């Protein structure tokens, strides 16, 4: 059996995967005869084939039927390709191949919620969705004055998956009037107020250091912390510790958590206070109508 190696242009090259997968299916190439990789995968694999042969796609079989898939499968793959697992390409192609075979195998790949491939694909897509949500919550911008005098708000984030470019739309909608940039190890995105610019990955040292505004935020965070409502396990579930080293307020969590019990006891033992009586606003006299 002839093997085919496909090296895509980048880790989230959905158009490239779609073109190659369609050609391979129509040439009747089974999943076990295809090796999928991105440039990053090829660089890490000492036994990867030479890239020169990776873009040669077979000709379609004369009797190849037209390839049609449901729209929800396309949407699933658009999210699945953002996962960091190198096996995501093989999983997508395996599902596509099964759909093209027809019969019970195609029906299971399309609709069976207990199908192993479908379950794995949806599990990976949910992981991508959670990572997007964490990025929404944990990005922290810091202002930087550029040479032209304008302010650029920059942030550093370390996602679990390749979500940086796909997630930029959220920040464009939320901070449309603000000029900002988000740096990650995989890619960088910058919004100039009119257009989104994408670039290569960056390093933590490329992001700006803490500023005076951050100190003000830490003061505010310390004062709004309620020790009586602390649930450390729940907090770690919603804000996993792997994100803490990039969150300014995380530097206070250990201290505040250690003193939470003592502060709660002091709140319970404190004398009750009488709330201030609200002062009713003065009523304006009704206007007089002159005879």
TrEMBL record:
Region (Disordered): 270-291
Record-linked Pfam families: DUF4130 (PF13566)
InterPro entries: DNA_repair_put, DUF4130
Domain DUF4130 residues, every copy: 87-249
Name under which the protein is recorded: Uracil-DNA glycosylase
Species of origin: Acidovorax kalamii
């Amino acid at each position: 059996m002839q093997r085919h190696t496909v090296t895509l242009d980048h880790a989230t090259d959905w158009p490239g995967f779609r073109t190659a997968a369609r050609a391979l299916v129509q040439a009747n190439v089974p999943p076990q005869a295809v090796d999928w990789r991105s440039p990053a995968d090829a660089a890490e694999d000492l036994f990867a084939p030479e890239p020169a042969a990776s873009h040669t796609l077979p000709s379609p079989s004369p009797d190849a039927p037209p390839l049609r898939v449901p729209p929800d499968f396309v949407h699933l793959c658009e999210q699945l390709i953002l996962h960091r697992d190198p096996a995501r390409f093989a999983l997508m192609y395996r599902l596509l191949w099964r759909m093209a075979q027809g019969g019970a195998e195609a029906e299971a790949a399309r609709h069976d919620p207990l199908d192993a491939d479908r379950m794995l694909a949806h599990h990976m897509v949910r992981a991508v969705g959670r990572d997007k949500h964490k990025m929404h919550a944990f990005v922290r911008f810091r202002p930087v004055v550029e040479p032209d005098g304008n302010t650029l708000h920059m942030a550093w984030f370390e996602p679990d998956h390749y979500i940086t470019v796909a997630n930029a739309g959220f920040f464009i909608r939320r901070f449309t009037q603000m000029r900002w940039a988000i740096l990650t190890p995989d890619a960088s995105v910058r919004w100039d107020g009119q257009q989104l610019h994408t670039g290569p990955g960056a390093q933590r040292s490329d992001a700006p250091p803490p500023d005076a505004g951050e100190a003000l935020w830490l003061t505010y965070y310390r004062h709004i912390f309620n020790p009586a409502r602390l649930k450390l396990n729940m907090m770690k579930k919603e804000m996993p510790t792997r994100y803490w080293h990039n969150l300014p307020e995380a530097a206070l969590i250990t201290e505040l958590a250690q003193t939470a019990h003592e502060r709660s006891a002091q709140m319970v033992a404190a004398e009750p206070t009488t709330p201030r009586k609200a002062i009713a606003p003065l009523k304006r006299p009704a206007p007089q109508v002159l005879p």
